[in-house]
Structure formats: C-alpha cells, structure tokens
Amino acid sequence: MPRTPGACSSAPRGAWAWRSTAWSHCRRSPWARWRSGRVMAPDRPDLRERARQAREARDAVHGRRRRRVVTRRDGMRCEVDGRWLLNVCGNDYLGLSQHFAVSGALQDAAATDGVGSGGSHLVSGHHARHAALEREIADWLQLPAALLLGSGFAANLAVLQALLGDEDVCVQDRLNHASLIDAARLAGCRLRRYPHADAQGALRQLRSLPGSAAVVATDGVFSMDGDVAPLRELAVVARVQHALLYVDDAHGIGVLGPDGRGSVAEARLDVGAVPLQLVTLGKALGGYGAVLAGDADLVAHLAETARPYLYTTALPPAQAAASLAAVRLARLEHWRRERLMALVQRFRTRARAAGLDLMPSETPIQPLRCGDNANALAWSAALEAAGFWVAAIRPPTVPEGQARLRITLSAAHADADVDALVDALARARDTLGAESAVATPA
Ligand SMILES: Cc1ncc(COP(=O)(O)O)c(C=O)c1O
C-alpha cells in the first residue's frame, strides 16, 4: 500500500495507516519531542488565566453578568428563577410576542414547512415565506426593496462589510449600538465617532476625510437612552458630504412614525435621504430576525456580497410567517402605539411628580440613572423585591459611571402596572437614599 504523501518513513502501512497523521507516531514529531521534554513550550499568555482575571476584575466593580431563567410567560408577567415578576425591561413594545395570530402563524407554517430552512438563501434555503415578508416590509415602509437576515447584529455587520473597505470611513454617533461599532471594525474601514446626537460633529468628522467613501451610521432610537437621533440634520450633513446615511431603527420601527414606520418616516425622510435602514423583528415585532430595507441596487448588492447574509442558514420559514403576521398587526392596530405612548406619558408624569430623575426620552425606553454599578444593582434588587424585573445596565453597555435601570414599557402593560412601578421606584429611592435619583431642576 502506498504511504501517505509527506509521511515519514516509519509511518504505519496497511489498514491502520488512515488513522495516523503523517507525524503522530514518529519520534521526530513535534508531539513526541514535546513529551520527551526536549522542547520548551513557548511562553504564551494563558487564555484561561486571562479570562479568570478578567472575571475577577469585573467582580471587583460589580460588573459580573448573569443570566436569569424565564420558565413561564403570561403577558408581561414572567416566572424568573421560580418567582413571578412584571417584566419592565424587555423590548416587546407592542405586546406582539405572544399574540395568538403571530404564534398561530408560526405553528401553521412549521406544520407544513418544518422547523428549519435547511440552507442559506443563495443555495437552497430561500423560501416563499421569506420573500413574502420582504415584500410586506418594503410595502409597509414604502421602500423599493428589502432583505431578510438572521438578526439585527448580523444585518449591521452585513451593511458595513459589504459597503466599506480599508480606504473608507464610517462616521458614527458615540452612543451607537455595539453591533454598529463592531461592524465598522469588521469592515476594516476607519471609524470616526462624533458626540452624541451632534450632527455638526458628524460634519467635522466627514470634512477631515474628504477623499474617502463614507457611511454615516446612527441608531434611530438610542437603545440605552431612548432619545431619537437628529435624522433631518444628519441627512443634510450626509447630502452635502456625499455620504450614505444608514439608520439602525431597531427601537423605532413599529413604535414611531405614521403606521409605525419608524424614526425615518417620522422625520419625513425618503429613500434618497436614507438609502438603507434596519428593521429588527425581535423587538416591537415580537419575533426574531431583521430586515434591511431601502434602495433596490444597494439591497441587491448586499444580497450578493454581504458575508453575514451569504454564509449562514436562512431563518426558519415559520419564523418569517410569524413576522409577517406581526407586521400586519403592527401596521393596522394603531391602538397599540396610542396605548404605548399614553403609558409613556403616564409614567413620565408620575415619575416626575415623585421626584425621579428621568432622562429626556419620549419613547418606551425610559432609563433611570443610578451612577455606579453597585447602586444600579441595589435599585434592581429593591425593585425585584417589589415584584418588578428591571435589569441593571452597566458598562461597557453604557459609558463608565452611567449605570442605569433601563425601564421599558409595552402596550401590554396596564395603567396600574405603571403606577405600581413608579411607587416602587420612589420607595427604592427613599430606602437606598440614592442622591443620583433625585430630580435635577430642569
Ligand atoms: C440599536 C440596536 N441595533 C441592533 C441590535 C441587534 O438586533 P438583534 O437583537 O436583532 O440582533 C440591537 C439589539 O439589542 C439594538 O438595540
């Protein structure tokens, strides 16, 4: 039997030869030399040790994260680690994640099409249900084209990787979501950040690199602050600088604008001003996945070249069917947005009256600053004791020293839930004596 090419002369032959790599049995192999103690291992940093030290460092600043296990959900109430709590920190803004029409659509589609797509979109996984969802979203947003991706995180990676290279620049708001920052890093382009919501700052950054192709990328609604980006000003800046404005509307879609078309529609900007925007399906639409919508040529380019789109399994068609049902509800049931906004106003009015220091947000994201991590954890624990689930958000998700409770409201909350939450917050403030939560005069 011929020897494996590249094997040393004493390599085993015959039936067992296939089990042996060319070197593994040999006394001259790197493995044998290491075992004999004749070779010193290189002095590399130990990654397990590094991870252990990093965890200890996080512990020292109350930065350790832990997952909570939800065992049952019933509307906005959920059983967390064995205890029923009111969820006031999720993103199910319209209360669609448990809607019978949405879960019914998923069940029906799974019954006929199974649970997985079985392939990537460009090979064998693209299903009529995916295409129907893309058409529905393009129609809803009054945009020429849409492309369904696995998640909002992947979609942000896809956009910047497909559009930008080494010589280019991505100009971003300092408080953009982590996926946008990582997307620019993956694209290998230059990343320039401007002060939060400062369109002049964006202009300065663009002016400093006049020869580079440029994307200006911003969250539509900032995920940890709840405020809305100055989209009209950014559109002017992008236009005069020949840059492309990309809006990640993860938290605006379904919530803001006419028919819930999001922050871009609310700012009355068309596809010329915002050639691409991100719609996530896992927040107000209650499901999972994301859609990039906008200019037809750009969307076609992404569909053919964006690696996070090409080299991954398509979403289950049943998940697309569920999202289609959710989009139809979000488009038509205006009462959900009206109800949500009424709850936001109720919360703000009562919280201000109770002397709580709210951030300037008119969206369902209503953060309450706590200062340091220990304080945020203490607030979160006090609220949990009162029956509310509000996670403490700490760095690096928010800037150092700006830990907060990210309170979020949903159309599925009751007035009484909001009132009880404000009472619990005020009691926590009184008990904890947290100066950071006392209102600063306007
Ligand atoms: C602003 C923003 N963009 C993108 C994402 C990522 O979306 P997804 O959860 O669909 O991956 C999030 C998620 O938290 C987000 O808040």
From TrEMBL:
It holds the Pfam family Aminotran_1_2. The modification N6-(pyridoxal phosphate)lysine is found at residue 283. Its EC number is 2.3.1.47. The keyword Magnesium does not apply. Pathway: Cofactor biosynthesis; biotin biosynthesis. The lineage of its organism: Bacteria, Pseudomonadati, Pseudomonadota, Gammaproteobacteria, Lysobacterales. Residues 86-425 form the Aminotransferase class I/classII large domain. InterPro entries: Aminotransferase_I/II_large, AON_synthase_class-II, AONS_Archaea/Proteobacteria, AONS_Proteobacteria, PyrdxlP-dep_Trfase, PyrdxlP-dep_Trfase_major, PyrdxlP-dep_Trfase_small. Its cofactor is pyridoxal 5'-phosphate. Keywords: Acyltransferase, Biotin biosynthesis, Pyridoxal phosphate, Transferase. This is 8-amino-7-oxononanoate synthase. GO terms for biological process: biotin biosynthetic process. Substrate binds at residues 65, 177, 397. Coiled coil: none annotated. It catalyses: 6-carboxyhexanoyl-[ACP] + L-alanine + H(+) = (8S)-8-amino-7-oxononanoate + holo-[ACP] + CO2. Pyridoxal 5'-phosphate binds at residues 152-153, 223, 251, 280. GO terms for molecular function: 8-amino-7-oxononanoate synthase activity; pyridoxal phosphate binding. Homodimer. NCBIfam families: bioF. Belongs to the class-II pyridoxal-phosphate-dependent aminotransferase family. BioF subfamily.
